[in-house]
Automatic annotation (TrEMBL):
GO cellular component: cytosol
Major localization listed first in the record, in broad terms: cytoplasm
Record key words, sorted: ATP-binding, Ligase, Nucleotide-binding
Compartment annotation: Cytoplasm, Cytosol
GO molecular function per UniProt: ATP binding; medium-chain fatty acid-CoA ligase activity
AMP-dependent synthetase/ligase domain: residues covered: 21-407
SUPFAM superfamilies for this protein: Acetyl-CoA synthetase-like (SSF56801)
Organism: Populus deltoides
Domain called AMP-binding enzyme C-terminal: residue spans: 457-534
One Pfam family this sequence matches: AMP-binding
Statement: the UniProt record of this protein carries the keyword Membrane: no
Protein name (record): 4-coumarate--CoA ligase
InterPro entries (UniProt xref): AMP-bd_C, AMP-bd_C_sf, AMP-binding_CS, AMP-dep_synth/lig_dom, ANL_N_sf
Domain of life of the organism encoding this protein: Eukaryota
Length: 551
């Protein structure tokens, strides 16, 4: 069979952008986007994206140029996930919670040519570009307006709007709906640039290929069992790894995208009821928001929600499911473009008590269809750890949706992509049934008296305390032990009796090995978070360090 080789007939580059073209035919008159009173069909969305891509080309945007988006989950943001690659450019979403200095750093590092900016981020982007060094070319700015927002003042301050070349809707109107979008020459061509959150170091620019995004988008649909034409609520920021690549997956199945500018429990419950939402995603913080809202009634119909980004405590999963949500749990990184491991559910587990089901569901699970392999290894030798649910090692991955590498950082790329594996920096165990469980980030393991303590395990126990809403555990310097666990706790609202530090410590002593028990408990009204909703442990570590050694 040596004469049978790949040819142009069977090797057309894979790209998720083609999902939109298909949706415009298969689901032409079906709703694609809903935002307040604005609605579009899939044929309209396809046409609008082509028009924006056409306008980008007229602005001189070429293949390989970086185009940035600084906006929340509004229709323009969703459309730009297609429109920018349709012009041959590389899409770069910026999270809206960064400060001007960090936005400036990302724009300069990526060499962004043009930035689409939501009207609420006008001052932010103008401050960011003002930080560019003199005589440095600045990106073109395009303003995304929002007529549906009653508080919007789009016409204010000509000094502000004068800095923008035009509005997003201008680009839609002026573009050619017959534009032939730029298809990749190779499926390995870069299509997306996402920066890691940079909570402990400078953010890294993760470059993904058309092939990788196609694989992870399709794999997520298969693994989650998403049917045709779901109603998907965007509680997950699109700037967070392109919404775990669900932006393209929803086009593949002709889903309806309910856009959400701000994550608030009353708004979410209202949209679920109004539009018959069937699916949504979010970090564990979203589960906390949904369960903390006072007076919440169980859902009329189940809503499937997938959570990832940090190991969710079993107690949080249990509370969420008691409201009628069907929680799925996945694991992925910016470097994998979305979720690549999920807790595939076994029918026999449905017979287990609710607390046991939640404990099992808190595990990360097995690789998704379309992904290749994962393991837990000794980071020094690379040898596989025993699959006994006890032996701790570093989680490593390999598969088709892993990044091409870090932009302008060959050393950083080589450090984590080596010996045929991507080294995640996550510490985990492999259970006997082949399911992965993340125990911690390697940098968050607390070493007390020579014993390794998983901050995640301590947090899981804290979440079972009836008064605890959220908890995070870090190491505090200790004169005798080196360091000991320090718990930061956010209590639930409306408690008749608030526990004191001793109450929390005594609870932990009754529910975990004594060497793991926090020696310090700090009560906070709100825990610091990254731009993607993760608790900023490096901030808490500095607070704990500032307390001085525990004596």
């Amino acid at each position: 069979m040596d004469e049978l080789k790949p040819s142009p007939v069977n090797s057309t580059p894979l790209t998720p952008i083609a999902f939109l073209e298909r949706a415009a035919i298969a689901y032409a008159d079906c709703l694609s986007v809903i935002y307040n009173d604005t609605t579009y069909t899939w044929s309209q969305t396809n046409r609008r994206c082509l028009q924006v891509a056409s306008s980008l080309s007229s602005y001189g945007i070429e293949t390989g140029h970086v185009v940035s988006v600084l906006a929340p989950n509004v229709p323009a943001t969703y459309e730009l996930q297609f429109a920018v690659p349709m012009a041959g450019a590389i899409l770069h979403n910026i999270n809206t919670r960064l400060d001007a200095r960090n936005v400036c750093i990302l724009l300069r590092h990526s060499e962004s040519k043009l930035v689409f900016v939501d009207y609420l981020s006008r001052e932010l982007i103008l401050e960011a570009v003002s930080l560019f060094p003199p005589n440095t070319k600045r990106p073109t700015l395009v303003l995304i307006t929002d007529d549906a927002d009653p508080d919007a003042d789009q016409s204010s301050s000509s000094s502000l709007t004068g800095h923008f070349s035009c509005s997003y809707e201008d680009m839609v109107e002026k573009g050619d709906p017959g534009f032939e979008w730029v298809q990749p020459q190779s499926e390995w061509d870069p299509v997306v640039l996402n920066y890691t959150s940079g909570t402990t170091s400078s953010p890294k620019g993760v470059v993904q290929s058309h092939r990788g995004i196609f694989i992870v988008s399709a794999a997520a649909l298969i693994d989650w069992g998403v049917p045709k034409q779901p109603v998907y609520l965007w509680a997950l920021p699109i700037f967070h790894t392109n919404g775990w690549s669900h932006v393209w997956g929803m086009a593949a199945v002709g889903g309806t995208n309910i856009c959400l500018r701000k994550v608030e429990a009353p708004t979410i419950y209202s949209l679920i009821d109004r539009h018959g939402v069937t699916h949504m995603s979010g970090a564990p913080v979203v589960l906390n928001i949904l369960t903390k809202s006072p007076g919440v009634e169980p859902l009329k119909n189940p809503v499937h929600i997938i959570t990832a980004g940090a190991p969710p405590p079993a107690a949080v999963i249990l509370r969420t499911e008691s409201l009628g949500f069907v929680v799925s749990h996945g694991y992925g990184l910016t470097e994998t473009a979305g979720l690549v491991v999920s807790c595939a559910w076994k029918p026999k587990w449905n017979t287990f008590p609710a607390s046991e089901r939640a404990r099992l569901k808190a595990r990360q699970g097995v690789t998704m269809a379309g992904f290749t392999e994962m393991d837990v290894v000794d980071p020094k030798t690379g040898e596989s750890m025993r699959r006994d649910g006890v032996s701790v090692g570093e989680v490593v991955l390999r598969g088709g949706c892993l990044m091409l590498g870090y932009l302008k950082d060959p050393l950083g790329t080589s450090k984590c992509m080596k010996d045929g594996w991507f080294y995640t920096g996550d510490v985990g165990i492999m259970h006997q049934d082949g399911y992965l469980e993340i125990k911690d980030r390697s940098k968050d393991v607390i070493i007390s008296g020579g014993e390794n303590i998983s901050s995640v395990e301590v947090e899981s126990v804290l979440y079972t305390h009836p008064a605890v809403h959220e908890a995070a555990v870090v190491g505090r310097p200790d004169e005798f032990w080196g360091e000991t666990p320090c718990a930061f706790v956010d209590l639930k609202d409306g408690l008749n009796h608030e526990p004191c530090e001793k109450d929390i410590i005594d609870f932990c002593r009754n529910n975990m090995p004594h060497f793991m028990v926090p020696k310090t408990v700090v009560f906070k009204d709100e825990l610091p978070r990254t731009s993607t909703g993760k608790i900023q442990k490096f901030v808490l570590k500095e607070i704990a360090k500032g307390m001085g050694p525990k004596k």
